[in-house]
Amino acid sequence: MPKKIPTFRPAWMLKPEVKKKVDQARYDRRPDRREDNAFYTGSPWRKLKTSKLRQDPLCQRCSTPERPVAATIVHHIKERKDFPDLELDWDNLESVCASCHSTHHGYGNKGRAERAGASDGTS
Ligand SMILES: [Zn+2]
Ligand SMILES: [Zn+2]
């Protein structure tokens, strides 16, 4: 009599890289996240972002005439989650480089301490 081998695999058996992908997929499926993607890939935002970077191509935080730093990100001064009405408001936009942007949002604040002393004290 052939015995059926159980195919069930507990979660801990997933390889770490597989698990990461699974988590990411789960995150992308969250309704708020989906809305976010729709906003950032939507053409009103992309047009606005392109014109902002065209008008202010340098980081508005750390670029100086002596050491220009190209901006790659358009940041919402008042965050979208708190001020959704201002998400397409020109005056709410700031051109920043990736480093200033991650510092602002607190992503990976490693090795950027030297910048703190150079800031002009405004937030
Ligand atoms: Zn910067
Ligand atoms: Zn931002």
UniProtKB/TrEMBL annotation:
Disordered, as annotated region: 23-43, 102-123
Single GO molecular function: hydrolase activity
One GO term describing the cellular component: cytosol
Gene3D superfamilies in the cross-refs: 1.10.30.50
Annotated ranges, domain HNH nuclease: 47-102
UniProt keyword annotations, A-Z: Endonuclease, Hydrolase, Nuclease
SMART domains in the record: HNHc
InterPro entries tied to this protein: HNH (IPR002711), HNH_nuc (IPR003615)
Source organism, top-level taxon: Bacteria
Basic and acidic residues compositional bias, start-end: 23-37
PANTHER family: HNH NUCLEASE YAJD-RELATED
Family in the record: Belongs to the HNH nuclease family.
Official protein name in the record: Putative HNH nuclease YajD
